[in-house]
Predict the structure.
Amino acid sequence: MAAEAPNASEYIVHHLTHLTNKSQIAIIDMSVINFDTLFWSILMGLTGCIVMWSVARSVTSGVPGRFQAGVELLVEMVNEQARSIIPVEESRKFVAPLAMTVFVWVALMNSLDFLPVDLPSKILALTGLDHSIHFHRIVPTADLNGTLGMALGVLTLMIYYNIKIKHASGFIHELFCAPFGSHPLLWPANLLLNLIEYVAKTVSLGMRLFGNMYAGELIFMLIALLGATATWWGFGLHLVAGTVWAIFHILIVLLQAFIFMMLTLVYVGQAHEGH
Amino acid sequence: MYLNATFIAQMVVFFILGWFTMKFVWPPLMKALDDRAKKIADGLEAAEQGKQALDASSRQAADEVDKARNRAAEIISQAEKRSVQMIEEAKGAAREEGNREKAAAKAEIDQEAGRAREALRDQVAALVVAGAEKILRREINAQAHTELLSQLKKEI
């Protein structure tokens, strides 16, 4: 933090700057990497996976404990959705577990939004790490790289299953001959529409989650600014608005995780359908 | 809102986590769920069978009870019949015994009466002889008159 108190826009900009290996100037720069996004996303992924793994290791088909019952509920929910969306069992063997991981992982990453927005920087300041770690954002899904990375993973899966189910020839035939028809004059239109469809699916999948979480984080910061006015009304509004928004955000966190999971399943399921 | 190499790394993490779940988390959980579903199905089936067995055995038990009740009623009616019969028999035997006693008593009475009559006849004969002796005022030769006396006795 700067020695003197930052003004509101400096505060927001500071909170929205990633911890990177070097500051980024161009919109797209592949030599830059966001350490904070990666650190928290991997930590949350490991947490979710290890918790589920610990349940899976001690799982019993007899009377389940409460925690096991909870995880089983999740497994059953994802499995039911996968079964109704993806017709091929061989594909479900990978996509259903992936969908569950995505749900747990995204929910955990989104939940980092509930941590007070100033907590990470305060901890860094207290431990003296703020000299080397000046910027830090802890919500990986409020970083477009985090959500687009997962969306690209889903795109990869779509292409993989398209080729696996319809073979390369079938996939290419579909790219050129659907949806309008197989007349050669229609090929460019078909291809263009299909490309737009794939890009739109991927971008909307990543943008939807990113937008929700980014907006949520920004509103938390604005609410924190109310408290920063150091007045009674600011304190009261901070308390009330913070509480209301945090409760509403619980819904968004889980809903967005569920939507991401369902769209993963739906998009992979669509890759199994032939035209 | 910059795009950089982070999303490539995120994509790799995405697949690694999916692979981990597919390998280590999903199969044991699905197996447990399937096993439990099977257990429950087996349990329900066993319960259904048990219920059917219970129904069958309660029906059988009811049959047995009915049979036993009928048999008991039969036995009771037989016993009643038999008791009536026994009473009748006892009555007959008693009546017969009474008759026999009566006949024996009558015979004895007759005998006693005969004996008394005989004794009376002897006494009367003795009295007659004594009377006759007194009348004749002499000794009668008993031997000479025995025949006469016994004839006289018979006539009395």
